[in-house]
Design a protein that fits this description.
The chain is of the alpha/beta class. Strand 16 and strand 17 form a beta hairpin. The protein binds inosinic acid.
Length: 424
């Protein structure tokens, strides 16, 4: 069976844990979009792994890992991650393939991300400064793009880097008065990348089609969340890739019809990092309680996440565009003991009530939430193993989300560990 897992909010829904669990039944796990801006946390026993580029299935010893063409790969970060896993006894030598067609994040991309954000002041996007936007811009612009496969021909890459660095230096100097960067320094690093990553490069599209024909089970792992999708999210406060499940096909060359089940991951409340509209945000004591209880601080940047009530309008939209079959609801335990509990069921925008999410930041920033208030519960859920043992109010909360999002919830997370998961 082939499955695809994507976040249905603004990222950080807990995909890492769900991918790790579902990977047990898979042969191959594929990352198909984004880059080192992602932060997927997997907890195994007492160990906590924060992965940025490797698929979360990497922590299981028998799974083959694929980094597909849709990613922008920061080789430095990837090498560190492979080393970190090796230091923890997790070897990837014979079970990793990186697409030659994935694009490469280089020093000047990270530099540009920082320079641009600094120059924008209060109009900044609030990016992770991982060079994501600038690298995807080079991909779309084509003339100055560098791909992972360029590591296979270092002589040609050296020339490309000279041309590209000269162009970037002119640009950054004129726009930001930045010091020039040295192409030779970047090339020197590339020689190390070629040495350390060269053996992993390959045609991941061919590999995936061959594997699916051989009836291997493939798990496709999205990064970020549908509301950060470049085309369908809250533009311009989005990431630069197709972060919804719609990005799966272009991101790895496998069409959606080859996927048997699309899982959407949600948190029992809503969070967002960076700028942009967030109608159900609780910038108050409730938001602070959720942040502390849910440990809502970024895996990649450490930034405190903005927190708010569950937004069913947003999730119903993400489920609809993503053809989501089932939902995994994470962090239900975080809501235990709250004094009140609300779900946003519709928006009022310019005096009109709607339950369809507008993927338009201007419009969304004028949305006022209409809430449904639910009964709270005080019980600690972290050791609940079966659905029937959940407090009735928690069951009612789940039922309300299912009704509003028109999607069944089949997996429920009640803590960070693998065994703190309820399957229905
Ligand atoms: P970028 O992807 O670094 O360009 O950042 C663009 C926006 O996406 C910012 O608001 C980031 O905070 C947000 N973002 C990027 N990656 C993640 C993620 O993995 N989780 C949550 N937000 C993210």
């Amino acid at each position: 069976m082939n499955c695809c897992i994507t976040g249905l909010q603004w990222g950080d829904e807990g995909k890492g844990k769900v991918v790790d669990i579902l990977a047990e039944k898979s042969d191959i796990v594929v990352r198909y979009a984004g880059g080192a801006n992602a932060g997927h946390t997997v907890v195994i026993g007492d160990k906590k792994f924060a992965l940025h580029l490797m698929p979360s299935g990497a922590v299981r010893p028998d799974i083959f890992c694929v980094i597909a063409n849709g990613l922008v790969v920061d080789p430095e970060c990837l090498i560190e991650e492979i080393q970190m896993l090796a230091d923890n006894g997790i070897d990837l030598q014979s079970r990793l393939m990186i697409s030659e067609n994935a694009h490469m994040v280089l020093d000047y991309h990270k530099r540009e991300d920082q320079l641009r954000e600094d120059s924008l002041g209060k109009n900044k996007i609030g990016t992770t400064i991982r060079g994501i936007g600038p690298c995807y811009a080079d991909k779309i612009g084509r003339s100055y793009a560098i791909r992972m496969g360029d590591l296979n021909d270092l002589a040609r890459l050296e020339k490309k880097l000279e041309k590209t660095t000269a162009y970037k230096n002119k640009l950054f100097g004129a726009l930001y008065g930045a010091e020039p960067m040295d192409a030779a320094v970047i090339f020197k690093k590339c020689k190390i990348y070629a040495q350390k990553l060269g053996a992993f490069l390959g045609d991941t599209t061919e590999f995936l089609h061959t594997s699916i024909a051989e009836k291997k089970s493939v798990l496709f792992e999205g990064a970020q969340g549908a509301l950060l999708d470049i085309d369908h999210g809250t533009f311009p406060f989005v990431t630069s890739s197709s972060a919804s499940s719609l990005g799966m096909g272009p991101g790895c060359g496998v069409p959606a019809k080859m996927v048997d089940k699309f899982y959407g991951i949600i948190k029992a409340y809503t969070t967002r990092v960076g700028e942009g509209p967030f109608p159900s945000e609780q910038d108050n004591a409730i938001g602070n309680i959720i942040r502390e209880k849910g440990n809502e601080f970024g895996t990649t940047t450490g930034r405190p996440r903005r927190c708010g009530w569950f937004d069913a309008v947003a999730v119903a939209y993400s489920a609809a565009i993503g053809s989501i079959n089932e939902i995994a609801l994470m962090h239900l335990d975080t809501l235990s003991g709250l004094d009140e509990l609300k779900i946003c069921k519709s928006y009022s925008i310019d005096g009109k009530e709607t339950d369809f999410f507008p993927a338009n930041s201007d419009k969304l920033s004028r949305a006022n939430c209409t809430y449904e208030t639910l009964e709270t519960w005080n019980e600690d859920l972290t050791s609940v193993k079966v659905f029937e043992d959940l407090p009735q109010n928690a069951k009612d909360y789940i039922a309300a989300i299912e009704k509003l999002t028109k999607t069944p919830i089949t997996i429920i997370g009640v803590g960070p560990k693998r065994n703190q998961t309820i399957f229905r």
